[in-house]
Amino acid sequence: MSAEGENAKSMSIIVTKGTLDWAYPPFILATTAAAMDVKVSMFFTFYGLQLLKKNLDHLQISTLGNPAMEMPMMGMHMTMPNIMSAIPGVDAMCSTMMKNLIKKKGVASIPELREAAVESDIQMIACQMTLDLFEMDSKDLIDDIELGGAATYMENALKSDINLYI
Amino acid sequence: MTTTLDTKGMNCPLPILKAKKAIKDLDAGETLQVLSTDPGSVKDFEAFCRSTGNELLDSSEADGVFTYMIKKSA
Known about the structure:
The structure holds two protein chains of two kinds. Chain A has helices at 24-35, 90-104, 110-119, 128-133, 150-159; strands spanning 10-15, 39-44, 71-73, 76-78, 123-127, 146-148, 162-165. By secondary structure, chain A is of the alpha/beta class. Chain A has a five-stranded parallel β-sheet, sandwiched between helices. In chain A, strand 5, helix 4 and strand 6 form a beta-alpha-beta unit. The radius of gyration of chain B is 11 Å and the shape is globular.
C-alpha cells in the first residue's frame, strides 16, 4: 500500500485533458507521489477519460493553438503554425515524432506510467457523467478503476493535503 | 548487502519509480545502489530520501553516471 510510510499524506488530481502531451503531468506526479508514500486519488473527467481506455494508441498531440510547442527537427527547433493542424495527417505526424522522441530520451510511455499507477494502488475514478455525456462504454476502460461523480471527488479532496487540477 | 539498480538512459520519473520498487524488496538496513544518467535525478533522489525517510548515504558522479547509495529505513 502506498500510504504506509513516513508521509501518510494524500493528494488528489483532477485529470481533464486527453492529449498525449497532457497525459504526462498527472501520471508523472501521481506515480512519483505514490513512490514517496503519498496516497493518491485521480479523478478523470471530460477528455481525461481518454487516458483510461484499455488501448492508448489513439492518444495524439495537437499543434493547434500551441505556439510554445517547439519540436527538435533537422538540427533546429520548429514550431507549427495553426494552419498546419488543419492539414490531414499533420497531428498524426507530430504525434509520431513526439513518440519517437519519448523513446529516444528514455521518457516513460503513458501505458507504462499508467501501469505503474495501477501497481502502486493509486485510486482512479472515472466520471460517470462524462461516460453518459459522450456515450462511452465503461467496458472500453481498464478494469482497475471506479466510477464516481463530483461528490466522490469532493470527499477525497476535503481529506487531501494536495489537490491539483490538470 | 547491496543491491544494484541500473536506470541509465531512463528519464524522470522512472529512476525514482524503479528505486522505490527495488527498495520494497530490501530488508531494513540493506543498501540499494542506483545508477542514473539523468542530471535531474540528483535533486530528486535527495528529495525522495528526505520524504520517505530512507537514508541517502552517498551521491556521486563519474563520467556522466550518477551513483546513489540508499539505505532502507525500518
